[in-house]
Amino acid sequence: MSTWLQILPALSGFVGVIVGSGCSLIGQHWQRRHDVTQRKQSISFAIAAEIEAYIEIVDQREWVQLAEVLIAQAIDGRIPKVENWLPEQEQAKDPFPIFASNMANIGVLGPITGPLAKFYTRVVGIRTTVTSLQLGVYDDLGPEGIAGVIRREVDLWLETVVLGRKLVQDLRAL
User: Fold this and answer.
1) 87 by DSSP, 3-state: which?
2) Core vs surface per residue 86-113: b (16+ CB within 10 A) or e
3) What interhelical angle do 2-60 and 113-135 show, nearest 10?
4) Each residue's pLDDT tens digit, 11-32
5) Three-state secondary-structure class, residue 96
6) With 80 as the cut, is the pLDDT of residue 72 above it?
7) Residue 67 — left, alpha, or beta (φ > 0 → left; ψ -120 to 50 → alpha)?
8) What percentage of the chain has pLDDT greater than the value 90?
9) How much is the pLDDT for 125?
10) Which of 115, 27, 130, 121 shows the shortest CA–CA distance to 80?
């Protein structure tokens, strides 16, 4: 009987360590899960605001209407002068600093990452085309060719706006 009196406290301590360790692991798991959820929500809300702000800026500056005027000039047979559409200082800046600074964490957003990358890639491509138009890179195409380039970019932008607005809704729902 005295052996049991010696084993019982050790066994009780061992069970306590096992239970305590298990509870600690479960608590750590819940905490990590909560942290990931919070980070995911924080990133998704910030990126949604950034996309929405960019679309609003383009709308406010009436870039689509400007593009339509340039297309009309080109159709009239004149090579349109594309100036200050995208100022040099704006060309030098990343239009999406929140997205860029969270690049390492974008994967936590899950399946929305693909459409998100598509949106950003399209915007960068459109900005590159605008910059090229300002520099006269497409002047060799003649007025009709330039009108075609601008028309395709306007169409791409309009599709990108639809994608962007859907992304904003989906990001806020995460």
Assistant:
1) coil
2) beeeeeeeebbebbeebeeebebbeebe
3) 30
4) 677 776 676 777 677 767 687 7
5) coil
6) yes
7) alpha
8) 63
9) 96
10) 130
pTM of the predicted structure, to 2 decimals: 0.80
Query: Distance (Å, rounded) from C-alpha 144 to C-alpha 115?
Result: 32
Q: For residue 67, what are the contacts with CB-CB under 8 A and spacing of at least 6?
A: 150, 153, 154
Q: Which residue has the tokens 């994967």?
A: 107
The span from the CA of 86 to the CA of 116, in Å, is 23
| DSSP letters for 42-82 | HHHHHHHHHHHHHHHHHHHTTHHHHHHHHHHHHHTT-----
Measured between alpha carbons, how far is residue 101 from residues 47, 69, 116, 120 in Å? 11, 36, 15, 14
136, 50 Cβ separation under 8 angstroms: no
Rounded-to-integer distance, Cα 134 and Cα 81, Å: 7
